[in-house]
Each structure stands twice: as structure tokens, then as C-alpha cells.
Amino acid sequence: MSGAVAPRRRRARRARRASRARLLAPPVALRAALLVTLLAALPAACATGPGPTTPSGGDGLTVFAAASLHGVFTELAPAFEEEHGVEVTFSFAGSSDLVAQVDAGAPADVLATADRRTMADAEELGLLATAPAAFASNHLVLVTPPDDPGGVTGLDASLEHAALVVCAPQVPCGAAAVTLAERVGVTLAPVSEEPSATAVLGTVTSGQADAGLVYASDARGAGAAVRTLEVPGADEVRTTYSAAVVAGAADPATAASWVHWLRTPPAREALERAGFGAP
């Protein structure tokens, strides 16, 4: 008797589980159907919903600029925006990186680099719609933390036991560092090569290095966060900043206005205050 009961109990349990499965199936299927419906509706909702915000009139200007121009270009933008009725968007990086980005198809209206070499590269690649216009210059200085932990006295033998950082040779500040060291007669042995002078400055101010070669404008912007040492002969190894309209710019006329505006008295005064020299 008990042998017959056990199979019946197992059949009863299977029947109850099957019944529960049938009861659960419709809600699960319903939820799946609703999910499919919602996913199908998303593209339409995105298409009919509000789009990205744009400046008044839908106008805008995208400027690709050398990292060392960050402070002064950000300062200059509001006056230009008010005068021309556009919104200016910046992308800052090492000059050689900027040229590579534009060559890869990154949307830009204006290109501003920190030396003639990188702008010549852009010309050779057919990336420019106008000839480059020089608007500023710069030179290298040596910076250390304020307390000078490495005992650095200049671009000299004191660097042999100090952690020095410089720009990578393919970017303008790095090429200038190589030339300056050759003129001074010093062999540089950096512990790190950075993609921009701004990155070098950050490495020094964060305490990760004893000294760094940066632009005079970067050192001025850092203020009391660094100790600045002028390097004899550095003024003879100046880098020249220039700007040009990028081929395929969305608004070539406004882009040309920015390039021209960089050489107006208000812009020149701002560049001088920031530590830049005349072109």
C-alpha cells in the first residue's frame, strides 16, 4: 500500500508545480511583451523629445588649442562670444596631439598650436583652410616646488641628482627643451616625458618631481605654487604660437574672426598679462 502511495504523492507534487508554472507564465510573458514594446518606443521618444541645447541662434565655434593656452583663451572667450553672438568650445591638448585629432576627423573650426613645426605638419596634411597667423610667443623656464627639495640651482649640474620632468620631444615644449639643453651644454636625464607643459607643471606642483621645464606663461599662472628660475639663452629658443581656420570648418567666417581677434589690442594685452610674448 505504501509503495503505491509514494508514486501518487510524487505525481501530485508534479501536478501542483505544473499548475503554478501555468499560473506564472502569463505575467512573465506580459512583462516581456511590455519590455519589447518599451524598447521599440525609445527611438521615437528620443526623436520627438527635446534635442541637445545650442547657443542662441544655433551658432558655435570649436577651437582646438595648445594646452598652454588654456588660461588665456578661457579668459578671452566671453568677450568674443558677446561680440560675435556665438558660443566658443575649447579642446586643449599637446599641439602634436591636436594635429593628429584633426587629421583623424575630429570636428574643429580653429587650430592653434604652440610652434611653427606642428602647424606646418597640419598644412602638409591639408588640414587648414587658411595660412597660419602668428599671435604670440613663449619661452621655457625651470620650475621647482617652493621649498626646492632637490636643491636645483638652474639648468646645470644640480639636476644630476634631481627628479626632472620635461615635455616629450614630439611636442613644442619638448623640442624647445632639447634645443635649449644643447645650447646650454647640459644633458637632460628626465624621469618622465609629459604630453604638454601643463602636464609637466602639474607633476611638479603635485610634488612628484623636483624640477620641470615649462613655459613662462605656465609658471606665471602657477604663481606661488612654484619657484621659477630663468634659464640663460631661453629667450633665444622661443616658440611661436599661430592659429588657422580648419578645412571644413562649420562656420569659416566666425573661425576667421577668432584668428583675427587674437591679434587685436585687447587679446594682445591679455596674452601679455598671462606671460606670453609678441609673435
The helix content is 40-55%
Largest sheet geometry: 5 strands, mixed
Share of β-strand residues: 15-25%
Structural category is alpha/beta
**Continuous helix count:** 9
Q: Indicate the low-confidence ranges by residue numbers.
A: 1-58
Rg, nearest Å: 31 Å
Strand segment count: 10
**Distance between the ends:** 108 Å
Shape: elongated
- In the sheet with the most strands, the strands line up as 2-1-3-10-4
Pattern of helices and strands: HEHEHEHEEEHEHEHEEHH
Average pLDDT level: 83
What does this protein look like?
The relative contact order is 0.16. A 5-stranded mixed β-sheet has the order 2-1-3-10-4. A 5-stranded mixed β-sheet has the order 7-6-8-5-9, with helices on both faces. With 279 residues, the chain is of the alpha/beta class. Helix 3 runs parallel beside helix 4. Helix 2 links the parallel strand 1 and strand 2.
Itemize the secondary structure elements and their pairings.
Blueprint: H1 2-48, E1 60-66, H2 70-84, E2 87-93, H3 95-103, E3 110-113, H4 116-124, E4 133-138, E5 140-144, E6 164-167, H5 172-184, E7 192-194, H6 197-205, E8 211-215, H7 216-222, E9 227-230, E10 239-245, H8 252-261, H9 265-273
Parallel strand pairs: 1-2, 1-3, 6-7, 6-8
Antiparallel strand pairs: 3-10, 4-10, 5-8, 5-9
